[in-house]
User: Which sequence fits this backbone?
């Protein structure tokens, strides 16, 4: 952390959730919320809460939805100096309802909300000038100006000798738009650490197959990959060929939203605090698993002490899928 805080650029939202499963919002249903949300906000909250130096460039409205986010981030230790408050636009929001099959219906207000006004304000420029790491999140590219801001921020951070991580959770529909594919490829090239989940690995690498995709990413200058596997845990791949599988903690999933963001926040913070990869993975798995046990996307973000307690009492799933598969292959 010595070089300066981890910075993320992107959306702050509130999430309002249906209390019942079912299809969409076509009749009156019970809702619960607002909960602080937005993938970059969840990431940075977890990053700060575990003890990392962390800050966010974002925009909210001058309303209670904005205030609950700012207050949460502030109390969890994030630097909120580069969150701007729009007098004209409301804080972004997402209404979410789970279907029986686990998929989700959304009603978003992001593009026409304060979230879309994120810009390189004087405060954001000052933050970047003292930042040590930039975490780039694919979700933020739903806001058009974020591409230019991210390019600029990568330049500033790299110039200072800082590093870049990428969660390639870009909405797939966006990849078809204009220059998106080339721009996304440039992000992958700029990244030191990539944290993909599922198929995002193949999208980021531009090749199918886990081994081929990992090889391709490492050949492009990525030095570290932390692959998220949901209830199967996670795997670290290093530039020197190291592979570390970390099984998931065994928990009852209440709300899966935010697991990947908490995983990322914990992982990046721990690595920047100087922890070895296996220890960072363990904290990241714990952060992701603990978060899915709680209703609300950011509600399970945890301090290092809370994660130590969680790790001490929570059993692990016996093997990750992949370890099981390799065991079979040996027989
Ligand atoms: P999201 O669904 O929030 O986009 P993601 O797809 O980016 O998340 P996941 O792999 O779902 O990432 O979750 C990140 C990490 O959190 C996993 O690697 C795992 O360690 C932990 N995790 C997620 N879901 C579970 C679960 N059901 N049981 C145990 N651990 C989990
Ligand atoms: Mg994800």
Assistant:
């Amino acid at each position: 952390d010595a070089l300066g805080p981890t910075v993320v650029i992107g959306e702050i939202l509130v999430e309002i959730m249906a209390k019942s499963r079912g299809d969409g919002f076509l009749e009156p249903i019970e809702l619960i919320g607002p909960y602080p949300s937005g993938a970059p906000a969840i990431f940075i909250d977890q990053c700060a809460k575990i003890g990392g130096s962390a800050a966010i460039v974002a925009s909210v409205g001058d309303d209670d939805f904005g205030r609950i986010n700012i207050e949460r981030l502030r109390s969890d230790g994030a630097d909120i100096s580069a969150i701007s408050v729009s007098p004209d636009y409301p804080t972004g929001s997402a209404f979410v309802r789970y279907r029986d099959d686990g998929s989700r219906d959304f009603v978003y207000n992001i593009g026409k909300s304060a979230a879309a006004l994120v810009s390189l304000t004087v405060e954001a420029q000052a933050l970047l000038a003292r930042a040590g790491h930039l975490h780039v999140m694919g979700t933020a590219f739903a806001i058009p100006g974020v591409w230019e801001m991210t390019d600029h921020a990568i330049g500033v951070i790299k110039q200072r000798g800082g590093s870049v991580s990428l969660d390639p959770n870009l909405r797939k529909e966006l990849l078809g738009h204009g220059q998106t594919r080339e721009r996304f490829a440039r992000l992958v090239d700029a990244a030191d650490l990539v944290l993909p989940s599922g198929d995002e690995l193949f999208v980021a690498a531009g090749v199918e197959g886990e081994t081929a995709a990992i090889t391709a990413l490492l050949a492009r200058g990525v030095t570290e990959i932390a692959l998220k596997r949901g209830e199967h845990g996670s795997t670290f791949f290093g530039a020197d060929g190291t592979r570390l599988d970390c099984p998931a903690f065994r928990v009852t999933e209440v709300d899966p939203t935010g697991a990947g963001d908490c995983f990322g926040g914990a992982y990046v913070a721990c690595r920047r605090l100087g922890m070895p990869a296996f220890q960072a993975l363990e904290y990241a798995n714990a952060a992701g698993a603990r978060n899915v046990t709680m209703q609300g996307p950011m509600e399970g973000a945890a301090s290092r002490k809370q994660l130590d307690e969680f790790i001490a009492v929570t059993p692990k799933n016996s093997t990750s899928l992949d370890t099981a598969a390799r065991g079979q292959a040996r027989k």
User: Anything to note?
Assistant: The radius of gyration is 19 Å. Residues 169, 197, 260 surround magnesium ion (ligand 2) (CB under 6 Å).
